[in-house]
Amino acid sequence: MTRSDTSPHAARYPAGAQAFPHRDLLGIGQMERHEILFLLDEAEQWVALNRQSAKHSDALAGLTIINAFFENSTRTLLSFEIAGKRLGADVVNMHAAQSSVKKGETLIDTAITLNAMRADAIVIRHGSSGATGLIADKVDCPVLNAGDGQHEHPTQALLDALALRHALRERGESADDFTGQTIVICGDILHSRVARSNLLCLQALGATVRLCAPPALMPVGIEAMGAEVFQDFDAALDGADVVMMLRLQTERMSGQFIPSAREYHHLYGLTKARLDKAKDDTLVMHPGPMNRGVEIDSEVADLIDRSIITRQVEMGVAIRMACLDVLTRRARGVEGWGEAA
Ligand code: CP
């Protein structure tokens, strides 16, 4: 694939760089900074389309997209489904709970089965880290990681970056990237694929990232990834431009990681009083689903001028449209993206 002429910011990519050379979207860790920016730029056209009353493109007409979800989801599954449909594709959802996985079929056999149905893209969410990469090795079409265990959730990080870019631009700040921004990610860092993907994405875009959690919920050695590590939430919030809250992922916990939800809220919950001690324009983010009254209070989550949580959801559809569009370009024979297979 070569640099895409359609990107409004193609000139700022490195000379000779390919806009997006990957067949699959498995993690932010595999992506260069200019590839992240390319996907964010590509998503802008879909933000604009999604804000119109008629939200339809036929870019992916005739293609079949399979969403195979082995874990529960509201935002990611629905936004991938909406994204595919708005691009004109046929979209099929496979929920593991109603599939032959329940009869003992393996992940590999499931992947081979989906491949035999000649899907043009497969979107996978799975509870095991690395499962999406395993499936990518077994199928002929692009695979998009919709969250794999504690590893990565790349489209979440991309949509978060797009939401933040829009919020900063509305404030009149130049937000091509996040140089100069200090972003706190607070919560269950240990079990969070969102934290990992966001750390990689935000750092690639120039932000300073602070991770804040109780010691039991902070991965050992995470400093090596370049993050500033905090146990004291108030200290982490001092001078922060953005705070991203994460829920406690109790479904991934074996044993007790916190003394009680009440104590956790006292030390790590984002309350209005705590936010008031930060900068007066600190933005609030949360990937959802939220546990109101635990990691975030309603009073904060619903703050119209500070919370961009619903904006994150809006951007999720646009980012997933961009990813589906870009990853299927080669198969569709889009000019400049190589020959159709
Ligand atoms: N943020 C996120 O992945 O939400 P869902 O689990 O609802 O998809």
What do these coordinates show?
The chain has 341 residues and is α/β, with parallel strands linked by helices. It folds into two domains: 170 residues, Aspartate/ornithine carbamoyltransferase (Rossmann fold); 159 residues, Rossmann fold. 35% of the residues lie in helices and 13% in strands. The protein has a five-stranded parallel beta sheet with strand order 7-6-5-8-9. The chain has a four-stranded parallel beta sheet with strand order 2-1-3-4. The N terminus is likely disordered. The structure holds phosphoric acid mono(formamide)ester (CP). Phosphoric acid mono(formamide)ester binds next to helix 2.
Which secondary structure elements does this structure contain, and how are they paired or packed?
Elements: H1 33-50, E1 64-69, H2 75-86, E2 90-95, H3 107-116, E3 121-126, H4 131-136, E4 143-148, H5 154-170, E5 182-186, H6 193-204, E6 208-212, E7 228-230, H7 233-237, E8 242-245, H8 261-268, H9 272-276, E9 283-285, H10 298-301, H11 309-327, H12 329-332
Parallel strand pairs: 1-2, 1-3, 3-4, 5-6, 5-8, 6-7, 8-9
Bound molecules: phosphoric acid mono(formamide)ester.
